[in-house]
């Protein structure tokens, strides 16, 4: 040091860049602000030995429809993953999941992706608590930022929220998401610039939003009108969203027709065996790729339930 020059303090100065500005360089290329932007990466959990333990004596404990053929269920999920890969989607898998949680392949419930990282969920039912630990570990390994882990008295499952666009998210409360959990999610979303939160009540006959509503294009949503709340519907229509009504209860409830995933605007992967739904979608200009999931659906979930988004292109 030159004589007479005094340095006061450590002179560290903060960067003025936002988290989103630095995210790609410091963390990785992860992003999601819609249900329909071009799908680039997903997180799934291939059913492991945990589903082998679902028997005629205990399947109702896990809220299953019945006992599944484990190998067939794995093959069906593999077919879905291969459809994703064929459309340029990177498929990642959760590692080291618990061996006593057969519902863990329903990944949408365990995380909710945002433009700045993932919200790690806290499932509502005891049979699913703890699945989120392996998800958090996998996200960290991949370099996906974790914005929030639902805590305190809150519980929240990812399928209780749905992106409409970068400014708008629907959050539903019901048997799988309580007000404490919803408030935590709303806080994080507003912190990253979501200005319009549509709050709605998930009815008794559905546990998640994707049981009765789902985006299929930037301005088109399929809905089961007898479960969609009027106030929510009105806000969506005011935003220019076309509501495509599906009313075949057998296809919606047993065939899980609404439980689909858009791989790009106007192109979806949907459960096979729902011909009326497919015809309706095609009349509205939506291309449908079908995948057989009858065995997987014994766990009361289909395409959307098994798919956690990690990256979508902005729309």
UniProtKB/TrEMBL annotation:
Source organism superkingdom: Bacteria
GO MF annotation: an example: arginine deiminase activity
Example of a GO biological process term: L-arginine deiminase pathway
Keyword tags: Hydrolase
One protein family per Pfam: DDAH_eukar
Signal peptide: none
Protein name, UniProt field: N-dimethylarginine dimethylaminohydrolase
Organism the protein comes from: Texcoconibacillus texcoconensis
């Amino acid at each position: 040091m030159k004589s007479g020059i005094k340095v006061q303090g450590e002179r560290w100065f903060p960067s003025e860049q936002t988290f989103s500005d630095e995210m790609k360089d410091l963390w990785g290329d992860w992003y999601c602000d819609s249900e329909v932007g071009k799908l680039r990466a997903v997180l799934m959990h291939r059913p492991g030995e945990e589903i082998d333990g679902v028997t005629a004596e205990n399947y109702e404990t896990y809220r299953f429809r019945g006992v599944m053929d484990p190998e067939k269920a794995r093959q069906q999920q593999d077919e879905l993953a291969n459809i994703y890969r064929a459309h340029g989607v990177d498929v990642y898998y959760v590692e080291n999941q618990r061996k006593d949680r057969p519902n863990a392949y329903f990944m949408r419930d365990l995380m909710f992706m945002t433009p700045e990282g993932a919200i790690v969920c806290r499932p509502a039912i005891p049979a699913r608590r703890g699945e989120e630990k392996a998800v958090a570990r996998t996200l960290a390994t991949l370099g996906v930022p974790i914005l929030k882990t639902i805590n305190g008295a809150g519980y929240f499952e990812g399928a209780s929220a749905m992106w409409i666009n970068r400014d708008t998210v629907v959050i539903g409360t019901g048997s799988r998401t309580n007000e404490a959990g919803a408030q935590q999610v709303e806080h994080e979303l507003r912190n990253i610039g979501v200005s319009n939160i549509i709050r709605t009540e998930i009815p008794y006959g559905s546990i998640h939003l994707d049981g009765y509503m789902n985006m299929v294009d930037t301005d088109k949503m399929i809905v089961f009108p007898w479960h969609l709340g009027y106030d929510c519907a009105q806000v969506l229509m005011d935003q220019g969203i076309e509501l495509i009504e599906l009313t075949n209860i057998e296809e919606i409830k047993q065939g899980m027709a609404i439980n689909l995933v858009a791989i790009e605007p106007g192109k979806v992967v949907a459960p096979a065996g729902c011909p009326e739904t497919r015809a309706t979608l095609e009349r509205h200009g939506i291309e449908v790729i079908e995948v057989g999931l009858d065995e997987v659906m014994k766990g009361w979930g289909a395409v959307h339930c098994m798919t956690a988004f990690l990256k979508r292109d902005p729309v």
